[in-house]
Amino acid sequence: MPSITLQARAKINWTLDVLCRRQDGYHEVDMLMQSIDLFDTLTITLSGKKVDVICEYPFAPNGDANIACKSAELFLDKISSKDGVHVHIKKRIPVAAGLAGGSTDAAGVLVGLNNLYGNPLSVDQLKKLAVLIGADVPFCIEGGLQRAKGIGEKLEKLELKKPLHIVLVKPEGQVLTGNIYNSLDLDNLEFRPNNDRAQKALVEGDLPSLAMSMGNVLRGATRKSCKEVDALCDMMLHKGAWGANMTGSGPTVYGLFENFEDSLSAMRALRHNGVEWCCALSTANECTTII
Ligand code: ATP
Hints:
This protein is α+β, with helices and mostly antiparallel strands and 291 residues long. The chain contains ten helices and twelve strands. The protein has helices spanning 67-78, 101-116, 123-133, 137-142, 177-182, 195-204, 207-213, 219-225, 228-238, 260-272, and strands at residues 3-21, 27-46, 51-56, 85-90, 145-149, 154-158, 165-170, 215-216, 243-246, 253-257, 277-282, 288-290. The protein starts with a strand and ends with a strand. The mean pLDDT is 95. It binds adenosine-5'-triphosphate (ATP). Adenosine-5'-triphosphate binds next to α1 and α2.
């Protein structure tokens, strides 16, 4: 049976700004997103008569409720196929954590199925399908470093000057993205990131300037339900990070470090302090890798 295995990577937000709430309920954003070397492993097999998803993880659903199911159904519909598909997801990306875990699985299914069928759809066609699934899914089709505008579908690919080293920490609890956006008070944002300066800093590899320009307007809303976000950012700075920020709607926080050794020693110190989940990683140039 034709089958493919791929790694679908998580992302962080160097920046996340919300410009306005649209009539249709979506938000216009301006953000710099980055793939990181933390991934779910997907095995996609053409078999059976329907789409079936098995996800090995306590908080992520199996079957129809998994976003990978909608993704496979959309793809099959687009190429007018009646085939059945089995998707097995070995999850490592924490769920509802601001790391686009579901979005990357959805994008991975589109990329994987396209590959299995001999690439009938272009990358642009895949991104058009992706936005029907979720606002972060188009980014996850190619990944790497990109600036995203619109609701996340207007993408500009950028080149990171050099790989960057981060530490991720996730406090206990999960955050639902929709709830955070709905509770956002756009007239009273405490801080906005400087996207143009952050973009320049990433392309030039200027860590101090990047650290000063990073920021996430959702942080204030997430803080209300997850008090640890600020304390974890402070801890990162205390352990030597150039800067620290919340990714997506949180509650995961990352610190930006000078090199891998510094990120490893910060990770060890944070684990010693008893944080729930913590790892040291680098940035990645792409979102999906077929293995
Ligand atoms: P984003 O950063 O794209 O807003 P997130 O990383 O905060 O997303 P997800 O991990 O995608 O959040 O989880 C959001 C919800 O989606 C969870 O409630 C989860 O049950 C559901 N879900 C459905 N399919 C998946 C999947 N394949 N992986 C993770 N969560 C999934």
